[in-house]
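for the recovery benchmark. tokens below, seq after
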């Protein structure tokens, strides 16, 4: 329990920064929505002239951006990207930073097994991931309501936040595995960033080229596509695939860290 509190104390500043950033992002996004709504048909005409590649990058498809539901679905892409960055970086650093900060020897001489250390750190970091998700959820409900002139979209926000949480846990677990494998925090964060950006770009490629649809199985961003969730709900296969990725990542994290030679 002391390890959990110690870890929470060490990440409290970054957690506050990420939480405030997500609230600010939602506020700025909805302020822009007000302008989009007022522009009306002229905005739709402008969007229709954008190249297909640009539409894919920004998640713009057949959705009506003058409707708050359509706008929020497109906006979800930014939540997914930022939430993924926070989660994978949190995961990649939480184990490797003990060697970086030269505190591994202090931690490991305590009468506690390595798997207990890993579990405590995972629980503390998962708490941070959940907090970022809840802040995004609550802020969305409150701020969107201020700009929504139609029916409530709280149900849509709920579904997208559940999708966001699963996506966050996927990237968090992958980050943990990278942190357990990588020889240093610098390499762990670099590899984690590369994987996140690579999977994001892969999701864009899938939207651009239908012949590459098979790539969607390699990018979690396509497991929880906002437009698909809005139209038909969650895909069972993608949910199962998410659980498999999380389970395997955690399993190998424990196995590898248990045998890892720590540089103290």
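predicted aa per position
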């Amino acid at each position: 329990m002391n390890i959990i509190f110690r870890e929470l104390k060490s990440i409290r500043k970054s957690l506050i920064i990420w939480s405030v950033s997500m609230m600010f992002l939602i506020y700025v996004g909805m302020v822009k929505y007000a302008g989009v709504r007022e522009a009306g048909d002229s905005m739709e005409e402008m969007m229709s002239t954008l190249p297909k590649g640009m539409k894919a990058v920004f998640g713009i498809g057949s959705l009506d951006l003058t409707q708050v539901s359509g706008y929020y679905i497109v906006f979800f892409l930014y939540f997914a990207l930022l939430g993924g960055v926070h989660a994978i970086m949190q995961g990649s650093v939480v184990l490797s930073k003990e060697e970086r900060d030269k505190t591994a020897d202090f931690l490991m001489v305590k009468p506690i097994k390595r798997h207990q250390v890993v579990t405590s750190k995972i629980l503390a970091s998962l708490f941070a991931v959940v907090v970022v998700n809840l802040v995004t959820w609550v802020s969305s409900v409150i701020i969107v309501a201020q700009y929504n002139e139609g029916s409530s979209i709280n149900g849509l926000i709920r579904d997208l936040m559940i999708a966001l949480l699963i996506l966050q846990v996927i990237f968090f677990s992958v980050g943990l595995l990278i942190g357990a494998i990588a020889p240093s925090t610098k390499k762990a964060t670099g590899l984690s960033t590369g994987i996140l950006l690579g999977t994001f770009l892969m999701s864009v490629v899938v939207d651009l080229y239908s012949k590459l649809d098979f790539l969607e199985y390699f990018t979690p961003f396509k497991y929880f596509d906002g437009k698909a969730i809005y139209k038909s709900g969650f895909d069972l296969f993608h949910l199962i695939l998410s659980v498999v990725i999380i389970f395997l990542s955690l399993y190998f994290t424990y196995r590898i860290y248990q045998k890892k030679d720590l540089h103290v």
